[in-house]
Amino acid sequence: DSIRVFAPATVANVVCGFDVLGFAVEQPGDEVLMTLRPDPGVSIRRISGDQGRLPLDADRNTVSASVQMLLRHLGREDVGVDIELHKQMPIGSGLGSSAASTVAGLWAINELLGRPLTALELLPFAMQGEELACGAGHADNVAPALLGGFVLIRSYQPLDVVRLPVPALHCAIVYPEVEVPTRDARRLIRRTVPLQDAVTQWGNVAGLVSGLFLGDTALIGRSMQDVLVEPVRALLIPDFYQLRELALQAGAVGFGISGSGPSVFAFAPDEAAAARIVEQLRRHLAGLGVGSRGYVSAI
Ligand code: HSE
Questions:
Q1: How does pLDDT run across 108-166, given as a tens digit for each residue?
Q2: Distance (Å, rounded) from C-alpha 105 to C-alpha 36?
Q3: How far apart are CA 140 and CA 12, in angstroms?
Q4: Which PROSITE patterns does the entry mention (predicted)?
Q5: Within the chain, where are the H helices?
Q6: Protein residue whose Cα sits closest to atom 8 of ligand 1
Q7: Which of 140, 151, 152, 179 best tests ligand 1's pocket when mutated (most atoms within 8 Å of CB)?
């Protein structure tokens, strides 16, 4: 018995919603091939696309570690599986790379066992995988990777996840090939915020969510502002503000950092506009001597 599962990249934060908003894209994503075997235990047999950087040790790899946690929770330590992980997106890129792998693994084992848990019930295990990957069990990548679409994490304790309407927009993503580990990018953020900044931020979060429900693209666009996290993380991204200018000139509805960066993303009214934005940003980065990858996707 074996199963192949794809889980998508995700854009977390969506500019103003640090740790509470995220959405899934169609591609890129990661793939897990999982095979049941007669003897108990969880093993990683092969990883491709990671340039040898991810651990094969089953206790340290987030895919196998979260599968082990799930088996323990279900009292099914008698089960044995071999895992192949095929990474189809860069690591440390801000595209929810670890989340996609973890979610694909959890989905695979849940299917092989005859679906004992719902997608939502898999979420806490995926969050533990994130904790292992970056030191923080945030859900804004794993929840949309697991559930699809646009997701709000209204509360972490207790966990309260709300599915939001998906806007009729395309997403342009550009990954400048500099690495920003989430663990480091989280350390930079201030622990306390001035009240006035908090007011601006929650106005924008509410505006973005309202824009999604109203299908109001202009409201979505003008709510995509972040006064708390972006000013600090922008420093890690080559020419961030120039990239924003270029994206907006090329027709972007809104622009910002994807997750903890260095990827940036923009909403665009259609596929052609998204492709134009990707091209402009990549050309600018090439001019700086920075290699990049680009993705265009429906949301
Ligand atoms: N909300 C997380 C962060 C997402 O910004 O650190 C990481 O991809």
A1: 999 999 999 999 999 999 999 988 888 888 999 999 999 999 999 999 999 999 999 99
A2: 13
A3: 5
A4: GHMP_KINASES_ATP
A5: 62-73, 97-112, 119-134, 142-147, 182-187, 195-214, 217-223, 230-233, 240-249, 271-287
A6: 259
A7: 140
Reported as a pLDDT band with limits 50, 70 and 90, residue 186 is confident
Q: Please report where in the chains the tokens 């350390």 appear, as a residue.
A: 187
Q: Write the residue with the smallest CA distance to atom 3 of ligand 1.
A: 260
Residues annotated as binding site for ATP? 90-100
Task: Give me 286's structure tokens.
Answer: 């090439």
| Residue-wise DSSP of 209-247 | HHHHHHT-HHHHHHH---SSSHHHHGGGSTTHHHHHHHH
Among residues 182, 192, 245, 271, which one is catalytic?
A: 182
- Amino acid letter, residue 189: I
Task: Please name the residue whose Cα sits nearest to atom 1 of ligand 1.
Answer: 19
Q: How far apart are CA 21 and CA 165, in angstroms?
A: 12
Residue 95 contacts residue 28 (beta carbons within 8 Å): yes
HSE-CB of 259 using CA atoms within 13 angstroms: 33
Give yes or no for residue 182 having a pLDDT over 90.
no
Tally of residues, the chain: 299
CB of residue 12 inside a 6 A radius of ligand 1: yes
Task: Give the active site residue among 10, 130, 200, 230.
Answer: 130
Q: How far is the CA of 260 from the centre of ligand 1 (A)?
A: 5
The answer to whether residue 121 is catalytic is no
Q: Which two tokens stand for residue 76?
A: 């099914």
| Interval between CA 95 and ligand 1 midpoint (Å) | 9
Model confidence band, residue 185 (pLDDT cutoffs 50, 70, 90): confident
| Residue 141 CB–ligand 1 contact under 6 Å | yes
